[in-house]
Amino acid sequence: MSAKQKTYSIHHVLILFALVWPLIYTYLNYQGRDGEEDVTYNKPNLIGIVISDEKPVFSKEAWFDGSYQLAQEDYINDHWPYKEKMVRLNNQFYYKAFNQIRVNGFVLGKEDYVFSESYIFSAYGDDLLKEEKVKTLLEKAKVVQDTLKKKGIDLLLVYAPGKGQACKEFIEKKYVHPIQKTNHDLFAANSKNLNLNYLDLYSYFEKLKPTSPHALFPKFGHHWSYYGECLAVDTIIKHIEKLHHCDMPNIVWNKIDVVDTARSRDADVLKSMNLYSNPEQNMKLAYPLIQFENDSLKNTTRVLTISDSYWYGPVYMGVGQACFANGQFWYYANRVVPSPRPGEKVEVWELDLKQEIESNQVIMILYSDGNLPIFGNTFINDAYELYTSPKTYTARAEKNKQIQVYAKQIREAPGLLKKATQKSNYLQIPLDSAIKLDAMKMAGLGK
Q1: What is the mean pLDDT of residues 110-126?
Q2: CA distance 251 to 291
């Protein structure tokens, strides 16, 4: 009796091909690099995801302690040829099936409005600080304001609106509850009581909203709209002119483009959603064709801006160069923009704080309501100590410098930054806190 001949169906062949195709595709992709050793050959085009280009280096120690295997696995996962497609398809599935977006800290509201969840909490007072803490910080700001005024420098505090407050009608019902008090209420009231120089753009935008001809906040963006940004810049310039008794170049526009596709930063969260197919925006957005008054005799009031990401829009507009006499922007009182040393990233702790402060005519601290719990970051406390107890400030700054050196290394090295990001997610702590923990460990000051 003859042996039964084995047969293979087309289904078996297709299943086998599907299983081995990723391996074949990876090999072909690797071979198509023109012979150059390029670790980024499969780097996915994804926004907001830290990808390490540093290929793990084999060593006996790393092999036996298991770190090489973990690093290699992480590297291969990042550079898998289908990484981008799979991430986008996964995000698309969650977006369509569960009305969720895979952007850390962000949620979808009604009509596809995206919100930072922390800004929703701020709008309803769920992140309320103790009033004594706010008062103590602003009392220090008052000391700094009065000290700098004697030197001919004005300190200005600016409270910007957040999207949670500005677009409450689009927030999901589960977040909504009666509001007793918000951090904005505390900061505005105490600023007034202490006679601080402050500009309340939060309240200004509230008044604008019912009659504004154009959207002040975009559907798929985190910050105020480009139109709102232009109004904010115009208001700030006029306020500084009155405060500092100076004449500054104006921002003007005679024409506004109204379009249904977001420009500038008006869809920054949409980009970070990393979807396979973006939804229709279904929203008219306004884009003033701005010009700055070109008068070098007016552009002499140097303004240092300490702010969160809300000020990046005006930076891209060119406000620092055109109106603020090339004044710097200190992002979260940390990164210096533009860098005073071209081609090198410079952080605030590397500068002489007293010299930097006193090279300006106006110091503006601008934070949106979602960041009021960290208003000014370290700037107010540092400036207060600098002018009231310079010896202790210098000693503390020197002590912290070693940690800050390592923290900067972590921020600039994708591999180290990725590890810190993973620690941040695992421990449920802010990324800056995770970076500090790793920096302390590198400096031999922590476990």
Answers
A1: 96
A2: 6
